[in-house]
Specification:
The chain is mainly alpha-helical and 84 residues long. 58% of the residues lie in helices and 7% in strands. The protein is built from 5 helices and 2 strands.
Length: 84
């Protein structure tokens, strides 16, 4: 699976091994928060899309039993760790 993901985009395997990219910003109280969708740049949106792409491929490659184990997961790295 790792080879398959790398063949599509070299950054896809990084998403599994490290973590997904989540754009952040500081609010008025100087606390770091997730950036609202409308403030994300096109580059940030593309990087966020990588997590969804990995989740899609992992879900498509598994059986119904495997899916039942991960259906609540939001982060592809968590899905990968459960499946390992």
């Amino acid at each position: 699976m790792k080879l398959f993901l790398e063949s599509l985009d070299v950054d896809l395997s990084d998403i599994i091994q490290i973590s997904p990219f989540i754009p952040k910003k500081r609010n008025q109280a100087r606390v770091e928060i997730d950036k609202p969708k409308e403030e994300k740049t096109s580059n940030e949106k593309a990087r966020v899309l990588l997590n969804s792409t990995v989740k899609f491929f992992l879900i498509c490659a598994m059986s119904r039993l495997g899916y039942d184990r991960i259906e609540e997961c939001e982060i592809s790295k968590v899905i990968w760790n459960i499946l390992k």
